[in-house]
Write a structure and sequence with these properties.
Radius of gyration: 23 Å
Number of strands: 13
Shape: globular
Strand order of the largest sheet: 3-2-1-4-8-9-10-12-13
Largest sheet: 9 strands, mixed
Low-confidence stretches: none
Structural class: alpha/beta
């Protein structure tokens, strides 16, 4: 089966729409080649050049790029022996073990990112070539995500020194972190087992992976459809601004250029970024997207994302939204501490969508009849301000699985009832699939991400019986670890979990009881 054998639903720009039938057809197309076949493995790459690691796509665990491989051929940045082996497995009806995230989702009866990522234009358009590969080819990605260093001014709870220099500083000053310390085989490192002096190439150091990148990048640039810079905090890396200067000097009309940022860097760096952004956002690339991260509201967000100024975050978010011709997407890294305030965050996101997104279906009417269809700027005015983007503001909801004690699956049934289901209902009630209200609510694919997480958590109650070894391993131990982690972080950072999250007191008590159970079993 080939791509052209299927009748797809496209928008006016010949991009696949988020219509469920498109994703279903992609799933059929993939399974026709093999049970584990995924186009992202052949087209998408995330590189962490500060540590010399790579993965394709972002779900599998990173693996080290052997220096000898890039010394022999810089194309090994995307063509390590490890990646070639995974591609061979996919092409021969096998499921690579590193892709277990998608296999878990599919085991619950849901479509996974294997289908969603493969439905992207940068992947799907290459399907008919990829199905004939052997896996030995040296490929060029169409979707490139790169982190140049771990330089960062924040230390989010789900992050670590590989991606945050702030985490590195904390571990050097306050020592390493363990949970369930002294409890035998249950003792686990959280952070600090790494050699912090050699873990990352420092921002100012010569880095052979960055050197290989700048040999490789000009060769693949014309074929890129997406170039995304992540971190650390990208605005603290000189390579980010070098990339922006390269794009300004080498326009690529088919390139979607993206940068992740926490919106919290010092004013001088922020203004430098805004000025360079203005130079490339209108006529140097197909489109510019700024990704930022937040997954809770107010002081709860600041507790999770150490170093965040939530009010500054909101101010700079709106600055980008009003800049014009820049798409802004929030990556809400959903974790167990997101649960109690996630609906508040969704309410703010809906307010922003209504304010800045436009309804393309009403553009003709506004041009030809004397009626007003919305408060504030008209749809026509908003479209003129953002001609490259149909959907200027969006939200993505990735699921935090590691560390395991932040996985939402360890939440209590009461948290599910009081917060997860209401947030899911709120998002579903405000997902409007009709032309009259197009893009002024949540999109189907945005809502589906939260539905996956909610479905998976509810399946825990259905399928894992309390008191069993499986329940102990997947629920009790991570809760006990979280209890230790929160108390340790509160002592180290001068914070207080229960003051910030009083509504989670019963959950905190459940975690405390889990710790007591682990202690009793360890005697």
């Amino acid at each position: 089966m080939l791509k052209n054998d299927i009748d797809w639903i496209y928008d006016k720009n010949r991009e696949l729409t988020s219509d469920p039938s498109n994703v279903e057809n992609v799933n059929k197309l993939l399974n026709n080649k093999g049970c584990g076949f995924c186009l992202a493995k052949f087209t998408q790459v995330t590189m962490h050049l500060g540590t010399g690691h790579v993965h394709s796509c972002h779900h599998p665990k990173m693996h080290k790029i052997p220096l000898v491989e890039i010394q022999e051929d810089h194309r090994a940045l995307f063509n390590t022996k490890h990646l070639k082996q995974a591609r061979k497995e996919m092409l021969t009806d096998q499921k690579p073990s590193e892709c277990d995230y998608c296999w878990r989702i599919e085991a619950d009866g849901n479509l996974s990112d294997r289908s969603f990522k493969s439905s992207k234009t940068w992947a799907l358009n290459k399907h008919d070539d990829i199905v004939n590969y052997t896996g030995e080819e040296n490929l060029n990605p169409s979707y490139l995500e790169v982190s140049f260093s771990n330089a960062c001014n924040m230390s989010c709870l789900y992050c670590g020194p590989e991606f945050s220099s702030k985490w590195t500083e904390d571990l050097k000053q306050k020592g390493p972190m363990k949970v369930l310390e002294g409890l035998g085989e249950n003792e686990r490192w959280v952070q600090g087992w790494q050699d912090l002096d050699t873990l990352n190439y420092k921002n100012r150091d010569e880095n052979p992976y960055v050197e290989a990148f700048w040999k490789w990048f000009p060769e693949i640039y014309s074929g890129l459809e997406t170039y995304r810079i992540t971190g650390g905090e990208p605005l603290m890396s000189k390579e980010t601004f070098r990339s922006m200067d390269w794009i300004a000097e080498n326009p690529n009309e088919k390139l979607d250029f993206s940068i992740n940022t926490n919106l919290s860097v010092p004013d001088k760096l922020w203004q430098k970024f805004i000025e360079k952004l203005k130079k490339i956002k209108n006529n140097k690339v197909k489109g510019v997207t700024i990704f930022t991260s937040c997954e809770a509201w107010g002081e709860r967000a600041e507790y999770i994302r150490r170093g965040l100024d939530f009010e500054l975050f909101k101010t700079r978010y709106e600055e980008l939204a009003s800049l014009g011709n820049v798409k802004v997407v929030v990556m809400a890294a959903y974790n167990v501490l997101s649960i109690s305030s996630f609906q508040q965050f969704l309410e703010w996101q809906l307010e922003m969508k209504k304010k800045y997104n436009f309804n393309s279906a009403l553009l003709w009417w506004e041009d030809n009849v004397p009626f007003k269809f919305r408060e504030g700027p008209s749809n026509v005015e908003l479209k003129k301000n953002s001609p490259s983007h149909i959907l200027p503001l969006g939200i993505d909801i990735p699921y935090v699985r590691h560390p395991r004690f932040l996985d939402a699956q360890i939440s209590t049934d009461q948290l599910v009832q009081d917060f997860m289901i209401p947030a899911m209902n709120y998002m579903a009630y405000n997902t409007i699939d009709n032309k009259w209200m197009m893009h002024t609510s949540f999109e189907l694919n945005e809502m589906y991400k939260l539905k996956q997480i909610t479905d998976h958590r509810m399946s825990i109650t259905h399928s894992i019986e309390p008191g069993t070894p499986h329940h102990y391993k997947t629920i009790i131990l991570p809760r006990a670890e979280l209890y230790d982690f929160l108390n340790t972080k509160d002592i180290r950072d001068g914070t207080n979990f229960l003051e910030v999250f009083p509504e989670m007191a019963d959950f905190y008590q459940a975690c405390k009881e889990a710790k007591e159970l682990v202690i009793s079993k360890s005697k």
